[in-house]
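Figure 6 in text form: structure in, sequence out.
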């Protein structure tokens, strides 16, 4: 053990003691966190070892496992399924009804793997060097395990509740929500209806092993594909034509590529950049502050810097457009009569789709190119989860107690199952365990050819989940 590590562990022990004192002040019955580590690891490894690659999903294997765990604890659970292989499970701990329910959830499916690229087999849940390696270890069997453990503890410690706590493990998050959240919202909404929900999408960022900040996802962008279809006259390749569909399409895509839609902030992104500036080194903080400026010159310069250096932040500023598919032509001596490009558009939650489509048409400005929405499984748009809500405050307070860090609300550029719930009026917050910022670029992040989570951070996340849920739901 190095001196630095020793110091870190002393500080950690002190932090744990401080947390224990605070917990003691809150309630008499508290989990024995050290004793619970084996049980947490057992459930985590068990669900990781069940292959729920989507497609085909087969999420019922995880549902069966969870059902048996809940049964053993005496928690009634119900299975809902559009397809028996792709079931969902719901359990409810009753409160006194003084407040509306809290829903805690995790999705059971994982993205597919290229097993040859994994050092440890992707469904082995191998423990090595303090990490657990498996597909789903950070997406989303971490949230699943933390929510499950929280339910078991609430029941075991007989915590009296001001509101029902509902657990949902849902199928098909990775592209087939018709079996999961969409089905539950459309067919069984009363079983999961809640004031607040906690799901994936947030986390805690560590840099060089040190916690820097927590993120709580309060909002997400809405995916809407747009297609550009260019039509011209077909002919012999030896006689070039002015109407060549590929030339027109290439021109349209080039204009879209050079276009930067308007920068617009909402409560979440404004707060995010302000708080990020407050904890960042001055040379970088400058850009986070400048991008909020009302001076267009200052703002544009910061926007340019972010686009080049921090593209995820650039996407958070606007409805983003990325041309990702370009097709046309089938042999070298035939001028094709049609060519098509597909744009991946991620709209700001307040974007008006029809108006945005008109903007794209104006940018393309070519009557030979049709601009239209692609047919796709869309997720609905919805307002922000509120930062002045009891839930956000509870999560912020839990992040302070468990991680001793600042909380940044975030708008995710990707989409999650929270979209459907938010559209029904449930205020949803995305949470997650602490992850080293260096881990993603090294290839250990969600959806990578290796996925891993630190064991210590799994246990700390269970505690965070417990803290936030009990703060929000226990009888006061
Ligand atoms: Zn996920």
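Output sequence:
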């Amino acid at each position: 053990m190095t001196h630095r590590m020793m110091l870190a562990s002393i500080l950690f022990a002190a932090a744990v003691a401080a947390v224990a004192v605070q917990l003691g002040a809150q309630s008499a019955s508290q989990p024995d966190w050290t004793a619970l580590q084996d049980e947490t690891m057992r459930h985590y490894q068990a669900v990781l070892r069940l292959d729920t690659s989507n497609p085909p999903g087969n999420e019922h294997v995880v549902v069966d496992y969870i059902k048996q765990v809940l049964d053993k604890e005496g928690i009634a659970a119900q299975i809902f399924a559009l397809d028996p292989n792709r079931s969902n499970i719901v359990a409810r701990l009753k409160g006194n009804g003084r407040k509306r329910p809290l829903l805690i959830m995790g999705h059971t499916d994982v993205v597919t793997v290229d097993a040859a690229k994994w050092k440890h087999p992707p469904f082995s849940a191998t423990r090595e060097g303090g990490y657990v390696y498996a597909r789903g270890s950070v997406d989303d069997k971490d949230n699943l395990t933390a929510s499950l453990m929280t339910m078991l503890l609430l029941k075991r410690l007989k915590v009296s509740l001001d509101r029902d706590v509902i657990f949902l493990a849902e199928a098909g998050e990775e592209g087939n929500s018709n079996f999961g959240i969409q089905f539950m919202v459309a067919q069984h909404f009363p079983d999961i209806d809640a004031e607040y929900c906690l799901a994936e999408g947030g986390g805690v960022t560590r840099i060089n092993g040190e916690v820097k900040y927590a993120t709580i996802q309060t909002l997400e962008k809405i995916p809407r594909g747009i297609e550009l279809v260019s039509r011209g006259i077909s002919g012999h390749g030896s006689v070039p034509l002015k109407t060549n569909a590929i030339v027109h399409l290439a021109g349209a895509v080039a204009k879209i590529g050079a276009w930067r839609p308007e920068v617009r902030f909402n409560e979440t992104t404004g707060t995010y950049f302000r708080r990020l500036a407050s904890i960042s080194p001055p040379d970088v903080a400058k850009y986070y502050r400048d991008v909020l400026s009302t001076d267009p010159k200052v703002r544009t310069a910061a926007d340019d810097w972010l686009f080049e250096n921090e593209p995820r932040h650039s996407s958070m500023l606007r409805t983003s457009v990325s041309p990702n598919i370009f097709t046309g032509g089938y042999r070298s001596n035939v001028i094709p009569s049609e060519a098509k490009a597909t744009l991946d558009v991620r709209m700001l939650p307040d974007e008006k789709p029809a108006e945005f489509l008109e903007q794209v048409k104006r940018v393309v400005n070519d009557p030979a190119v049709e601009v239209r929405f692609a047919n796709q499984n869309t997720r609905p748009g919805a307002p922000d989860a509120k930062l002045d809500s009891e839930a956000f405050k509870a999560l912020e307070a839990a992040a302070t107690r468990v991680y001793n860090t600042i909380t940044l609300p975030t708008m995710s550029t990707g989409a999650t199952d929270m979209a459907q719930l938010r559209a029904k009026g449930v205020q949803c917050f995305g949470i997650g365990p602490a992850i080293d910022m260096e881990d993603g670029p090294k290839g250990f992040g969600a959806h990578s050819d290796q996925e891993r989570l630190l064991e210590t951070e799994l246990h700390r996340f269970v505690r965070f989940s417990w803290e936030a849920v009990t703060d929000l739901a226990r009888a006061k």
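Caption detail: Residues 107, 139-140, 173, 200 surround zinc ion (CB under 6 Å).
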